[in-house]
Write a structure and sequence with these properties.
single chain; alpha/beta; Rossmann fold; 2 domains; seven-stranded mixed beta sheet; 5 helices; 7 strands; about 35% helix; binds S-adenosylmethionine
Amino acid sequence: MFALGDEDLAGSVLDCPGGASSFTASARRRGTRAVAVDPVYLTSADQLAERVSAELERGHAWATANAERYLWDFFGGLPGHQRSRAASAALFAGDRKANPGRYLPAALPHLPFAERSFDLVLSSHLLLTYADRLDAGFHLAAVREMARVSRTGVRLYPLVDQAGRPHPELVERLIGSLTADGLRVRVRDVDYEFQRGARTMLEVLR
Ligand SMILES: C[S@@+](CC[C@H](N)C(=O)[O-])C[C@H]1O[C@@H](n2cnc3c(N)ncnc32)[C@H](O)[C@@H]1O
């Protein structure tokens, strides 16, 4: 979803928000200095594991009822998707227990890091995804904050909301404001589409 190449994963990467995904654990295995932040990491590992397990069930029921909203090839259908999400959550839970220092509680638009702390910042399924609840001001403040703590830039995915609706005005507004800040911003195609229409990311370069 982020069109990542070897060079992108050679340094340090901040996953913001990391949620219960396995990105940080997987990236660490290949040598990337990955760190995840999410306000949900205030919740203890055991409590979060319970919550994630319930969420997996809910998510599966929702995906089953709304299967037409997704392209299933990547996961090999609904059962494959369920297996993949469970494996990802298990990898996350094990890694968080073994390496709690990789999972820091923090909430956008304020990150507890100095300027240029990470080579790259990745952000998936928060901004745009919840465009119905998070206003344009929050989006801009959040991307500026992620850009501040990055050395090379930020990648944001997807550019559609939970219902698969694009938000071109919001994206244009972000591009305009970030460009005025002196950042280079572009919409890039990615070689991944699970949610129908989610074929692009926003790349912000410092
Ligand atoms: C749908 S999950 C996405 C997690 C992960 N990126 C993924 O794709 O699996 C959204 C996450 O955003 C987190 N979140 C909510 N408000 C936030 C904020 N203000 N700053 C950072 N993360 C936030 C939630 O706790 C939740 O884990």
